[in-house]
Fold:
Amino acid sequence: MKKIVIALMLVTFAAAVSFAADTVTYDGGKKGAVTFDHKAHQGKLECSKCHEGTPAKIAVDGKDQGHALCLDCHKANNGPTKCGECHTK
Ligand code: HEC
Ligand code: HEC
Ligand code: HEC
Structure:
């Protein structure tokens, strides 16, 4: 019985640490900061749409990476694509 309780606690702990912060804000340069709502995206899309293997931090640095990650999927899935829908000053 004790072993089962400990196993359950470990499962709960693992589930808790596999969730990212609710929102992340990228600098976005002159165009203005970009806020990514991880929680909202996570609720609508499977983890594997963005993460390969075990979900972990994805580094986003600059336009090429940012647009490749965010814009490409938005174009393909009717997400927001206007500059001001991501960049805010
Ligand atoms: C729309 C894309 C997308 C989806 C879907 C997504 N993630 Fe993420 N995730 C990201 C991005 C981008 C980051 C990097 C955020 C940052 O810089 O802190 C991230 C970061 C993380 C991190 C690392 C957090 C940190 O600060 O170290 C974990 C853990 C994670 N995601 C788990 C998940 C899980 C679990 C799911 C599915 C339930 C999921 N993600 C779905 C894009 C996504
Ligand atoms: C795998 C696909 C995918 C990726 C990657 C993705 N998004 Fe999205 N995003 C969507 C979809 C689909 C919607 C529209 C959701 C809806 O209308 O219900 C959306 C909506 C949004 C919205 C509108 C408000 C909201 O949160 O619902 C913003 C802002 C946004 N995304 C920013 C980002 C940023 C910034 C990144 C990159 C760090 C990103 N997204 C990566 C699919 C994606
Ligand atoms: C789906 C969200 C999204 C949309 C729409 C979007 N961007 Fe971005 N953009 C990003 C992300 C994320 C970054 C990376 C931010 C960072 O690394 O600080 C970025 C970075 C940039 C940068 C580089 C900033 C820097 O100095 O590092 C420029 C310039 C830029 N975008 C211009 C635009 C323009 C112009 C449009 C409209 C045609 C646009 N973006 C639409 C998400 C978006």
About this structure: The chain has a mean pLDDT of 86. Residues 26-29, 31, 34, 60-63, 66-67, 70-71, 74, 80-81, 83, 85-87 surround heme C (ligand 3) (CB under 6 Å). The radius of gyration is 17 Å. The CA atoms of residues 15 and 46 lie 15 Å apart.
